[in-house]
Amino acid sequence: MEFAIIGAGMSGLTCAQRLTAAGHGVRLFDKGRGPGGRMSARRAEVDGETLHFDHGAQFFTAHDQRFLRQVEEWEADGVVARWPEAGSDAWVGTPAMNAPIKAMAAKADVQFGVRIEGIRAVGTGWRLVGPDAPRDLFDAVISAVPAEQVAPLLATDAPDIAALAQATVSDPCWTLMVAFDAQPNLPDTLRTEGAIGWMARNASKPGRGPAECWVVQGSPAWSREYLECDKGEVAERLLGALGRKAGGELPRVRHVDAHRWRYALCGEAGEGALWDADTRIGACGDWLRGPRVENAFLSGLELAQKVLDHG
Ligand SMILES: Cc1cc2nc3c(=O)[nH]c(=O)nc-3n(C[C@H](O)[C@H](O)[C@H](O)COP(=O)(O)OP(=O)(O)OC[C@H]3O[C@@H](n4cnc5c(N)ncnc54)[C@H](O)[C@@H]3O)c2cc1C
Q1: Atom of ligand 1 nearest to the CA of 266
Q2: Is 202 in the pocket of ligand 1 (CB under 6 A)?
Q3: Is the pLDDT of residue 311 over 90?
Q4: Per-residue pLDDT for 149 more than 80?
Q5: What ranges do the domains of the chain cover?
Q6: 145: confidence class by pLDDT, cuts 50, 70, 90
Q7: Distance from the CA of 59 to the center of ligand 1, in angstroms?
Q8: Which of 107, 148, 151, 299 is the most buried (most CB within 10 A)?
């Protein structure tokens, strides 16, 4: 079959990898500018230096044997490494969090910068709808996007999937990216209560440069409270909270920015993956299993298995 997968994050690419290995044709379409999804990384040019921030997922853990096997392959390829500062089971992409996604995307047929707005039945096939959508017909369509972004795609043709996704609510996460000209008086990683949920020193991750780049995540409750605020105000507030954690003093700020993840950490629909062999519409993504990179991988894998088992 010829598959169109909407979304080239961890779940979509994993599903694509398995379907392609089984001999199916797979094309992926992603609205993002480059590979990463919620495992993205940001760059900033400051004084002739490139600063790097993992501004989405900070690290991931691997417990299921199927994911562990994949992580071992990535480790052998040099695209992930352990990050002991976050725990004995913590892994990160190297040199940036999006490295495993980049590696998978390089082996797949992915078009970035293509926003899909819906799907339309044409004869026995499916056509994608959107300003840059391809004109081609596909035998099957897979949604691999965050829960809140499923309904606009599938409400008409797969209302059950759309309804389940709509009932699965994600927490937002305001994220501060700040670079200092010296090391602040803070531990390399810290999980806290209040405005800041988590903070990490990027330089403590393997394969990063020495620049003092920090990522500070607003807690879910705080991020929801300030969701519609301007990013300048949010950056100021999170920087203030960081200063208080550092005992009132921070080194000189070289760069500061904030990013709003409206749908950061998903709820959990508990279905693993969804596939309708009659309509040939499926869905995978972390929201079907819970908010973790490992769950996104397993959902993509399980969807491919359902397709291979049930056609
Ligand atoms: C701030 C933050 C912190 C996190 N921390 C952790 C952590 O510490 N550990 C952990 O394990 N997990 C963490 N996560 C969660 C983890 O990143 C996700 O579970 C995982 O990356 C989800 O993968 P996915 O493929 O399901 O979705 P995504 O990575 O979101 O991929 C979906 C893709 O679909 C694309 N897309 C969406 N709509 C459309 C459309 N209409 N048309 C075309 N393309 C579309 C998007 O551009 C995106 O690339 C964190 C996430 C965030 C945001």
Answers
A1: 19
A2: no
A3: no
A4: yes
A5: 2-38+100-168+268-310, 41-97+171-265
A6: very high
A7: 13
A8: 299
Second CATH level (architecture) for the domain 41-97+171-265: Alpha-Beta Complex (3.90)
The model's pLDDT over 107-136, given as tens digits with 9 standing for 90+, comes to: 999 999 999 999 999 999 999 999 999 999
The pLDDT, as a whole number, for residue 193 is 87
Contact 170 CB / ligand 1 (< 6 Å): no
Atom 15 in ligand 1: which residue has the minimum CA distance?
292
Ligand 1 pocket: which of 28, 31, 38, 302 to mutate (most atoms <8 Å of CB)? 38
User: CA–CA separation, 99 vs 59, rounded Å?
Assistant: 12
Instruction: Report the pLDDT value the prediction gives residue 143, as an integer from 0 to 100.
Output: 98
Measure the CA–CA gap between 186 and 196, rounded to whole angstroms.
13
Per-residue pLDDT averaged across 172-187, rounded? 97
Please count the CA atoms within 13 angstroms of the CA of 274 that sit on its side-chain side. Answer: 27
Instruction: Tell me the CATH architecture of domain 2-38+100-168+268-310.
Output: 3-Layer(bba) Sandwich (3.50)
